[in-house]
Amino acid sequence: MAMLTLLLVAAPGAASERWFHLKVDEHSSDGAEVTVNLPLSLIEMAFEMIPEDLSQEVSSELEVELNEHGFQVDQLRRLWEEVRYGDDATFLQVRENDSEIRVSKVGDLFVAETVGETDDVRVDIRFPLQVVDALFSSGTDRLDFAAAIRALADYGTGDMVTVRDRDSSVRIWIDDRNTVD
Fold first, then answer.
1. For a tag on the chain, would you pick the N or C end, based on fewer CB atoms within 10 A?
2. Is residue 40 part of a domain?
3. What is the percentage of the chain residues whose pLDDT exceeds 70?
4. Which residues span the domain enclosing 36?
5. Residue 123's closest CA among 75, 93, 165?
């Protein structure tokens, strides 16, 4: 009876565990298939295990380079705040023939997608804004990766990235299962 009670108490917690999944599938006859399934709590723990001084050093040396100009974490945080608290918008749109590439902010998501009649590549990226908020939440010149993973777990389940072309497919998603569907 004690074992049954333990299972009933532990089961709800186990069911709510969020899992990160990555699946890459090459469609050729000798193509590889790669699958990664990790609990988000394990990823969070791995980031928390990084010593503070090393984390500080990595964050302070982290620089995003665009057109040979570097941007520090505090500059990226201010840029992010402008995007985050602005209205929904399409930031980039490229139309060519019968297809379109769009990058936009829609509700609580940052979206990059191809739309239309393209046989070459289909891309659909939907990234929760609260994850980037958490990444910049330290208020210092360091990125908080553990907080970003917690925010991702709190956000919920679903596809984040799907990319398909004639030769391969990539899918990244979060769900409550420890196996690939």
1. N
2. yes
3. 81
4. 2-175
5. 165
